[in-house]
Amino acid sequence: MTGHDGQPPPDPRPDGRREDQQHLDDQLHQHDQQHDDRHDTQTQKENDMGTESWVIAAPQQIEVGEVTSLVVGLTNGAIEVVSDPARESGASIDVTEVGPRPLHVTSHAGELRVAYDFAGVEGVVDRVRGLKDKDTATVRVVLPAHLPVKIATARAAVAVTGTRADVSVTTADGAVTVDDTVGVLAVKSAAGRVAATAHEGDVRVSTASGRVEVGGRLGRVTVSTVTGDVVVEARETTPLVTAKTVSGDVTLRLGQGAGVNLKARAVTGKVVLDGAPLPSTQSRTTSVDHSDGTSGAYVSASSVSGNLTVSRA
């Protein structure tokens, strides 16, 4: 039908849209409103091409299946990783505290990632402005013992218990506590205290001012500090220990009767074996080479002013 001028008559509806288009617009508006409502809830879950993701804005518990490794990235708060010998697969995540910025949990191809998302302009701007206090979370993850763990934090404390795979921790100022673990333990820290007890395997620790304590059935132990003291206790094994400090003291405690082969270099530091100072071959600096003539622990220590103390009891 046309008007007197040959043109289609005007649509009698004010907006000029057809009824089906109006219905579609209403549906889209309703969908957007539902999406906003879901975003405001404490957890938003997505599943896309084998990837599961959660956005955690409030305390929440999550069960994840088919996990082969764990990656954690936190700023403030705490992360606790506990192995469950009875668990063969999957992981349980318990978020007991989360700050204004939501925490992201992602599971893809077996990798479970618990971390803050700094993608996008807002994340970059917040980092530049130093607004990282918003990134606070307290998280506990329970997983099978055989899964490797990789953790990075700024100030969040780290605790790992019972794992039977390699553990890697990087932190600026967070305390690191590791207990009853097997595998390679690697820790890099600026100022946080590092304590590993009942560990079986190799240990690598690098820190500026944090105290380092390592104990267990140790293999190769490598520790580097600036001012932090180092304590290594290996009463059941004869490890290979390499320690470098500027002013931190190094203490090695071995089992009774263990053989000791040591090389120590320092500017003013002293070397003591079983309570007796060892003489230096140099007059102005400390240079000690000692061997019991038997296989045993091998110790290489270098320092500016730190002391080396080895005891067997």
Automatic annotation (TrEMBL):
UniProt region (Disordered), positions on chain: 1-48, 277-300
Domain DUF4097: start-end pairs: 165-310
Pfam families: DUF4097
Positions in coiled-coil regions: none
InterPro entries: Toastrack_DUF4097
Bias (Basic and acidic residues) ranges: 12-48
Protein name: DUF4097 family beta strand repeat protein
